[in-house]
Design a protein that fits this description.
The complex is a heterodimer of chains A (about 400) and B (about 400).
Chain A lengths: L1 H11 L1 H41 L2 E5 L2 H4 L9 H10 L3 E15 L4 E9 L1 H4 L9 E4 L9 E5 H7 L6 E7 L5 E12 L4 H4 L2 E5 H8 L7 E6 L5 H11 L4 E5 H4 L1 H39 L1 H9 L4 H36 L2 E2 L3 H4 L9 E2 L5 H18 L1 H9 L2 H6 L2
Parallel strand pairs in A: 3-8, 5-7
Antiparallel strand pairs in A: 1-9, 1-10, 2-3, 2-6, 2-9, 4-7, 5-8, 6-7, 11-12
Chain B lengths: L1 H12 L3 H41 L2 E5 L15 H10 L3 E15 L4 E9 L1 H8 L5 E4 L10 E4 H6 L7 E7 L5 E12 L4 H6 E5 H7 L8 E6 L5 H11 L3 E5 H4 L1 H38 L2 H9 L4 H36 L2 E2 L4 H6 L5 E2 L5 H27 L3 H5 L5
Parallel strand pairs in B: 3-8, 5-7
Antiparallel strand pairs in B: 1-9, 1-10, 2-3, 2-6, 2-9, 4-7, 5-8, 6-7, 11-12
The chains are: A alpha+beta (about 400), B alpha+beta (about 400).
Chain lengths: ~400, ~400
Amino acid sequence: MLFSLAFRNIVKSKGRSIITLLLSTFTTIFFIIYVAFTDGSHHQFIKSSVEIYTGYAHVNLNGYRDEGGYDNLIEDAGSIDQILKNDSSIKTYSPRFETYSLLSGDEKAVGSMIVGIIPSSEASLSKLPSSLIKGEYLTDNDTNAIYIGSALAKRLNVDIGSQVAMVGSSIDYSIAADLFTIKGIFKTGLFEFDSQAAFVNKSYLDTIMLSDNIASYFTLYFHDNEHIDDVTTALQASLPSEVEAVNWKILLSALVQAMLVDSIFNYISISIFFLVIFFVIMIFSYVNIYTRAREIGLLRALGLTSKDIFGMLFVEILLLATVSIVVGTIIGASIAYYYELHPIVISGIAETYKEYGVVSDEIPMNFDLFTIAWNALTIFILNLAAIIYPVTKINKLTAMEAMRYV
Amino acid sequence: MYKISQHLAWLSLWRRKTRSAMVVMMIALCLSGLLGLQGLYDGMISHMINTTIRSDSGEISLYAKEYRLNKSLDYRLSPLSKFENAFSQIEAIDAYTVRLEQEGLIATAHKSRGATLKGISLEKEQNFGQLDAFITKGNYSFGKGNKNALIGSALAKKFNLSIGSRVIFTAQDVTGEINSISFRISGILKTGNPALDENSVFISMEKISKFLNLQQSATQIALRVKETENIKKVQDQLQILFPDTDVLRWDELYPLLIQMQEIMNIFNLASYAIVFIVAALGIFGVMLVSVLERMREFSIMLAIGTPYRIVRNQIIMEASFLGIIGFLAGALLGGVLLFYMSTAGIDMRSFEAGLELYGYSAVMYANMHLYYFFQAFFAVFFATLLSVIWPLRKLKKIKPIQVIQGKML
């Protein structure tokens, strides 16, 4: 009976029903798209930073991340290599040797990050080979060939075939110097990285830096990167105590934190929108319920309890909310899914915001069923909460008071 | 007549107290939230602009042509006296500072990385942008005989440097020779400008000039201009005096900051528009019911000869009262919120690393401007007017006698 009464009321109060339906549907769509867009852009940011160079996890000596330098190098890289080779959760890995040196072209010298890499291994670990824009990528047999960032090449005023001198210090703190020929120029889109980094075949750099069987860290790619916390914790158990396995959430903690702050501000901004929606639904429910005060009084006089009245009004909003949230979720989720597959393109955004780590003009939305579910649930609860006050208020009136209500 | 409408509107408003209170609360809460956000976002961007101007660009900066494209010492401003004489003739220039910089490699005994060495005059920087206020550790001094250096906080952190630590800087001088210089750290600076905090080491102008083998030269001269409206005028004046020099305003040097400010303004306006269009729906709901349930009352008024405009004014005023009370409550609440956020600030130090990555301050202070409240008033006013259009149309269509007889609603 409550259901049919509620249904009749919904049909009878068309204005209120349509406004509640439209507002809730629109809010659901808006919220799902807003969160999908925000999360999508954040994921894009983090994914770019992880996949371009950093990698999903590192294995390094304790203290390397905080202090760096030559005092915290893995000095028996071979033994760590053996452990990683035997770990079935790791798909691929590679050692890197990172140092900073002065690179000089014909006219200019710039402090740069020089990294010794195994060129063939990097293909499945980073975007270094695919970021090539000029010349050639390194091979495992290269000697004094250098693969350099596009902005760094510009700063040094050098091109393919140019020679650059490197002056740095080897791991015994003696002067390390050599002459390299530029073999390739890359552009990842990460502005700071492109303007600082240069790569050399590790086996050759080891002869200059005296870093044979030594690595700054190993970069890893797991079979299951989605559960990175679990896999790094499991890996840690097999590593010696002085060596740590850290995943991208820690390696890029500042970036993760920046995205979190951005999300917090986004939620605060959108909460004002929710507040106004809440009030509008509450006002319409209140007005609607009070225009039916006489009818409600009559129902009470006929024997319906205040619980029944609450149930009837609750079923009304439940029906309206369910319909709007289902429709809103289907539309919102479809849009999020579509734009995850076909990202929104904002021409020029990568160039404009390059210093902020934006590497692509494409901004995909993030289609995540769990996120969509809690978005929809939030609007659903908002709808139900909006009628609590009007229903409580009308139920305080006695049957006679309600019937006399003008 | 107007007074009667006003009186009737006021009384009608309080016939249904809860309903009116809901609308007032809706307007007040949304408005205070919007005011708070507007002030906070505005404050964040203003802080970035302010620190950039104070620590780097000034209102206007001068560079040798080509320098910004190719940061080579071949493109430098020299002799400095030529510029300094010109500045003394322009009254609108409040202060200026001269900087000479070179990129190179900073190293400690254990670590090295790319950085920028900047030669400055502490006195000039203090007058220019109160650089001393950015000191977080140590002293705003190059020590005895100007032998020490100041360093950006993020760079100091990367090297684990403290006051008294020794660092070596290696760079090319003007002849192309690679030289090294050593100094101790006497102060750590945190300007909020990531480019400075992560990359810069400051030493005295005399020391860098000697190190780079240069005299009377600078790579940048930054100026503070007395009034904002003078900036363009001073820029044009300087461009005429130094046609072979890039004379650029801060917004030309950092277009991203202006863009961020514009995006934030658009975001604020869009938020006001969306929130108050929806709020207008809420006011509309109340006004419509208020008009419908008093149709007989209005019909009687019209039937006894009350002009339609009196009734119309009454309804508009009723909605306006709701809007004004909501606005006053919201403005008061928002004003208190803004005052608190602009004086005490919001402590976000637990997210410090993330905020500093993009140049935001970890303690955020809101801005508070009178125009926020005018903007808010117009939004409420617009929402109020929008909400009564439909009820008034409904009222205009009624036939009073039929309504009184109960034949029509």
